[in-house]
Amino acid sequence: MKPVELLNSEQLSITITRLCHELVENHGDFSKSAIIGLQPRGIYLANRIVKRLEEITGLENMRHGDMDITFHRDDFRRKSTPPTPSDTRMDFMTEGLKVILVDDVLFTGRTIRAGLDALLAFGRPSTVELMVLIDRRFSRHLPVQPDYTGRTVDSIASERVEVEWVETEGTDRVTLLSTESE
Amino acid sequence: MSSLSVDHLLGIKGLTPEDIELIFTTADNFKDVINRPIKKVPSLRDITIANVFFENSTRTKLSFELAEKRLSADVVNFASSSSSVKKGETLVDTVNNILAMKVDMVVMRHPNPGAPHFLSKHIDAKVVNAGDGTHEHPTQALLDAFSIREKLGEVKGKKVVIVGDILHSRVALSNIHCLKKLGAEVMVCGPRTLMPKFVESLGVKVEFNLKKALEWCDVANMLRIQLERQDMAYFPSLREYTMQYGLDRALFNSINKDIVLMHPGPINRGVEISSDLADSANSIILQQVENGVAVRMAVLYLLAGKIKGQD
């Protein structure tokens, strides 16, 4: 199967704007909210969301962090090499805040479970919501569902969703690949 | 994704520079973890670690135990003074008995050089050397180099002098291997009687004058005079040692250079280093202790990652 482009640069930009408006609807002035990108790939979406939100709302210095979940994963010792951690940048406590966890692709839900676990180290948030760019539904191992979804995709396990960002790959694009096409 | 090239941490000698870098980048993350309000992660919650100490230790044991607990491992402690080793049991038997209770990793300190190497060949568990006689003390060298990297940005190209009892010091040997692998220049300085023959073959400079050594270096690691290993008189008196090789304020000021001061502890205040220097802004002695926990967490995490889990 040939790779299928799910979102191009323009569509991605429109989707991010839409997600931001959904956030504004639920979070108002964001005074009690925090946006946390999950390392390693969720931080790029989180950065875009924060940037766009600041443009839309005129707010500055929104509460925003990057969180690494490596040490909370449940597949440690089930892979040949231990997962390599990334940096955590959290300069605030989440006590009493409305937290929005941000990741690029929701697949089995295990990363989000680990994210919820990791989040406990920073306090007790009042609520936690989940935002993902791509929701691969019908592939969940755990009862995890997103509150804000960029695009829902029906895919089988042998397929892979690749999210590219200008910051890392030089282009904004989301592609569905089948493993045979690689 | 990367992993260590070794299955046990027996010494620095067996590590590659890439292994050391991997341990450091992992330790950076654990340092962040241990500075959070909740200083614990669940990575090793299904791992049991035995701390087997055939020789006294306070801080190394405490540091390993904290590292293990902050990774959520189950920990059992064993000290030879209160054990059946005194009743004539062999090393392999002692450890196999502990392993029969389903222990996954062994952290061992032993007075005989090579004991952890021997053990690693005979048991089915990951072995971490916490000091074997006068041979190696790998986690100390890792935390020393990690502390230099943190203070000075990098280890490569830095000039480090190790001062004191080089002959009996496992810290010195591990430090030499570690610093050389990371591209630092290393000098050893101490009385001739405490300088091993052919130490130059390790690629280090040798200096017998402390002032000259200090003028050369960026970092001075002041080793403890190991009174318990001085079974023959290597120097006439402690006072004479201090006069020749002790670092005090007057000598330090005469150097007119900003030197980072380190000590693996426990300090004999007023012997290797004077009290005010040990507590000065140039000293990173307490940072070494803090980094020790992060570095040991990284070592345990990376080695535990090699224990096959269930699928």
Task: Tell me what you see in this structure.
The complex is a heterodimer of chains A (182) and B (311). Chain A is built from 4 helices and 8 strands. With 182 residues, chain A is an alpha/beta fold. Chain A has one domain (9-155): 3-Layer(aba) Sandwich (Rossmann fold), CATH 3.40.50. In chain A, helix 1 (9-27) crosses helix 2. In chain A, the strands form 2 sheets. Chain A has a 5-stranded parallel sheet with strand order 3-2-4-5-6, sandwiched between helices. A 3-stranded antiparallel sheet of chain A has the order 1-8-7. Chain B is an alpha/beta fold and 311 residues long. Chain B folds into 2 domains: 17-136 and 290-304, Aspartate/ornithine carbamoyltransferase (Rossmann fold, 3-Layer(aba) Sandwich), CATH 3.40.50; 138-288, 3-Layer(aba) Sandwich (Rossmann fold), CATH 3.40.50. Chain B has helices at 17-34, 59-70, 91-99, 115-122, 138-152, 170-181, 210-216, 238-245, 249-255, 275-278, 285-304, and strands at residues 48-53, 74-79, 105-110, 126-132, 159-163, 185-189, 205-207, 219-222, 260-262. In chain B, strands 7-6-5-8-9 form a 5-stranded parallel sheet, sandwiched between helices. In chain B, helix 2 packs across helix 11 and helix 5 (138-152) crosses helix 6 (170-181). Chain A binds chain B through residues 68, 70-73, 76-88, 93, 117, 120-123, and chain B through 1-3, 25-26, 28-29, 32-33, 36-38, 40-43, 46, 71, 301-302, 304-311.
